[in-house]
Amino acid sequence: MLRFRLLSFSLSPISSSSSPVFKPHTRNRFLFLKKLSSQMGSYTTASDSQLSGSKKLLFRQLFEKDSSTYTYLLADASHPDKPALLVDPVDKTADRDLSLVKELGLKLIYAINTHVHADHVTGTGLIKSKVPGVKSIISKASNAQADLLIEPGDKVYFGDLFLEVRATPGHTLGCVTYVTGDGPNQPQPRMVFTGDALLIRGCGRTDFQGGSSETLYKSVHTQIFTLPKDTLVYPAHDYKGFTVSTVGEEMKYNPRLTKDEAGFKGIMENLNLAYPKMMDVAVPANMLCGLQDVESKAN
Amino acid sequence: MLRFRLLSFSLSPISSSSSPVFKPHTRNRFLFLKKLSSQMGSYTTASDSQLSGSKKLLFRQLFEKDSSTYTYLLADASHPDKPALLVDPVDKTADRDLSLVKELGLKLIYAINTHVHADHVTGTGLIKSKVPGVKSIISKASNAQADLLIEPGDKVYFGDLFLEVRATPGHTLGCVTYVTGDGPNQPQPRMVFTGDALLIRGCGRTDFQGGSSETLYKSVHTQIFTLPKDTLVYPAHDYKGFTVSTVGEEMKYNPRLTKDEAGFKGIMENLNLAYPKMMDVAVPANMLCGLQDVESKAN
């Protein structure tokens, strides 16, 4: 059974607007259901809500060239405070991202990672140091440090929009995938931020950081390929210049994940990839939410 | 007064499906208006048509890393033949683009350039050699060779969707900008493919190929900044990892185009840029629709 937990950032004038609230499980299930119910009352037809849903979401895909990393900016543009979050920010491009957030008049509340990256240093530490009040998020299963440790079934709210957390281990043991909500006021088609679990026509390697090809195969097939086929796939990396795919496309054309499990394992065991260049720098830094935290602790 | 011309690719079973028809002016004005009228009859409300419009368009942004070029794939996914076009394809990534076209079940009919590029060789020649029937398009003002030479006010149809041609010289003398239609069955918000005339928070250089900072300033202000503010801006390049902007954003934050004309000219005259590395290879090739054409003529 799915567990519902709510990561809500209170934006009412009474409570502090710089302290995201991580509510305990039982109460949040109630809050989540109540929230959904009140949203549903605002719309009468499916097509109207789809249109409204997509108009509410302000979305930007951003690229960091050295590590070919995609960072995603999402905001609820219909909310008075325009609360926003960044998925997989990179330290090198943190200033670019923050400048964009400012120009668009957004209030950044979360800096989120899909997993402990081995190829770049996360921007979360730097962002937190530059924008007080921003909370870092990573999965509890990653064993990394962050302000909020999320678990499968959790919902990360930004305004009236939310990302649902799905466990997709296999590239690392703590990988999660974030999916936009399936409520009537959420973006249509849905969008899935897959980290390195599923790349466009590929997937992340499985030979480090608790990786397992068997686990990754199950993760993608049970947690991502079960989404509607028109769900837009936004990965953490692309090395060929693709920006987006769909679940249906990857189910049909992903050269690795379309194989059976044995075939997939065979491919992953014979990739013969070099040791990740940035790994020995990036992983220790990312376990602490970015190199900036490591440095500040050392001083 | 706007001139209406129609670039229509006949997809009826009677006529040849591999010969785009470039109709003369007078007749096409009639055809264009007739086409629009029949589309309008299908929809009853603004919100419905907006939703349908965006659902009809299959859109992909593709990146070529060496020259930081964006190629755009657009198709009418609701049309039985899924007619498609590529804007600013690059020779190096032509195979990637054609593979995607095939996987998505599209029928590529046009390979279009915004201008004669100086930093990469266009993919149009290679694409034409690999996919018989595809027609290359460039502006008449560019003085380059292509199957179809378009002029301001022309409309390039792919299925029931179209791109409108706007003259935006200044980076080169033949630069054009393509804008998705403003009809009721066209994508909302509109999308503008600006080539190098307007980049995200920047613009193309004006010191080669008949460039003129004065002309570019007028082009952007009269042809692009007059579009609705929510129009999505898709440039031919980005060097900082941005993928999209809006007209409203550029009107507010573009560090060059927000200046007055004298200020803009001053900036452009003092960029002190190096001679374009690829220019002596790319421009002669692109004047003939891609190096492949040059090679085949030489053999």
TrEMBL record, chains A, B:
<keyword id="KW-0007">Acetylation</keyword>
<dbReference type="GO" id="GO:0050313">
    <property type="term" value="F:sulfur dioxygenase activity"/>
</dbReference>
<keyword id="KW-0223">Dioxygenase</keyword>
<dbReference type="InterPro" id="IPR044528">
    <property type="entry name" value="POD-like_MBL-fold"/>
</dbReference>
<dbReference type="GO" id="GO:0046872">
    <property type="term" value="F:metal ion binding"/>
</dbReference>
<keyword id="KW-0560">Oxidoreductase</keyword>
<keyword id="KW-0479">Metal-binding</keyword>
<feature type="domain" description="Metallo-beta-lactamase">
    <location>
        <begin position="68"/>
        <end position="237"/>
    </location>
</feature>
<comment type="similarity">
    <text>Belongs to the metallo-beta-lactamase superfamily. Glyoxalase II family.</text>
</comment>
<dbReference type="InterPro" id="IPR051682">
    <property type="entry name" value="Mito_Persulfide_Diox"/>
</dbReference>
<dbReference type="Pfam" id="PF00753">
    <property type="entry name" value="Lactamase_B"/>
</dbReference>
<dbReference type="GO" id="GO:0070813">
    <property type="term" value="P:hydrogen sulfide metabolic process"/>
</dbReference>
<dbReference type="GO" id="GO:0005739">
    <property type="term" value="C:mitochondrion"/>
</dbReference>
<keyword id="KW-0408">Iron</keyword>
<dbReference type="InterPro" id="IPR001279">
    <property type="entry name" value="Metallo-B-lactamas"/>
</dbReference>
<keyword id="KW-0809">Transit peptide</keyword>
<protein>
    <recommendedName>
        <fullName>persulfide dioxygenase</fullName>
        <ecNumber>1.13.11.18</ecNumber>
    </recommendedName>
</protein>
<keyword id="KW-0496">Mitochondrion</keyword>
<dbReference type="InterPro" id="IPR036866">
    <property type="entry name" value="RibonucZ/Hydroxyglut_hydro"/>
</dbReference>
<dbReference type="GO" id="GO:0006749">
    <property type="term" value="P:glutathione metabolic process"/>
</dbReference>
